[in-house]
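[audit] Reproducing an earlier prediction to check determinism. Same input, same settings, fresh worker. If the tokens differ from the archived copy the diff job will pick it up downstream; this log only records the rerun itself.
[audit] input (407 residues):
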Amino acid sequence: MGFWRFLSNAKVTVESLIAGWSLQTRDAVEGRHVLAIQDSSDIKFSTTQESRRGLGKVGKGNIFGVVLHAMMAVDADSGCCLGLVGGKLWTRKDKVKIPHARRPLAEKESERWVSTATQAKDVLSKARMVTVINDREGDFYAHWARTPEAGIHLLSRVMHDHALERGGTLRKFVRKIAFCAKAVIDIPKRMDHAARKAHLSLRFGKTVLKRPTHTGETNLPESKSLCFIEIIELHPPKGAKPIHWLLLTTHDVQSAEEAFRIVGWYKLRWIIEQFFRSMKSQGLRIEDSQLKTADGLMKLTAIAARAATVVIQLVQARQDGEELPADFVFSPEEIEVLAAINKNVQGKTELQKNPHQPKTVTWAAWIIARLGGWTGYASHKPPGPITIHHGLNDFQNICLGWNLQNV
């Protein structure tokens, strides 16, 4: 009942909850090259024709829910998740009658890619450098023209076959460039394919995009100079879907080594995909919620996004991630509770003691994993998202009791 009242409180807004995502991220990014990875996901809730719960359509078919757009800060060198940066939550209303091409960017859903990148410039101001990373939906001219600035780069997979300043289109131009390097990478096992090795060919170069002729945006430059990188699996195994990425970036690319490094940054997009899975089927199962209003469901989603990020950070820490201070994830009161729990979950032998530096995220992840049922032996398989979720549930209950004791 207390949680329901919290979500129903008019002073608790989706905007304020999203603003709270980045409180610890601001300091965690100091002095780093940060990959600001953003993406969107539909959060689908079951409804009936009589009770839509105020939700709008998402995806294809007769499915209703909310749309979550989030940006996550990741260290470019270590791949370590540093926390959420910002984002947006909304539910679609009536169908828009004005054609997409005739609407200004501010009235399109694609505006979220630019506005979230603008949020990042403030939240990530202490970073040494920022590279905003989009999936294909974030590839549009206004984004390329407005987001980059000193210390802020943009990297995106290509969706549109952009017109070029000297005539022709991007894809036709790229096909004329010779491949200059090769690499072999391991493709991990997934539900839809077995593990395998992929033999990749790479080419890169510079190009200049031309301002689109039909755009509702004003004050856009006539052209934008960018570098492209294409990596392609020319001869995939029979039945396998070939890897093929065409990337655009504001980073200057002078060598194959630099190109492969940028490809490596783009590969880290999988972290935000894991974040969405942690909110849904692999953890919080937020789509099972029975809250009756869209407003309540959006607030719940904003809270769940923060919790899912903590899970990602703890799972990374248990997989030999970077040693981060615990206060990047937990409050001082929570760290005090962790220290008390640590004494009880450790075994009597050296093999069952917490081997990590106290008050680090790795130290905290060891404790949370033990609460979630992990054995504690370093020789055993590291705990995954489900174990961490179980441990966090127990930890929050212990924190509640600890606060009652202090009262």
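[audit] rerun output stored. Observation attached for the diff report: DSSP finds twelve helices and ten strands in the chain.
[audit] end
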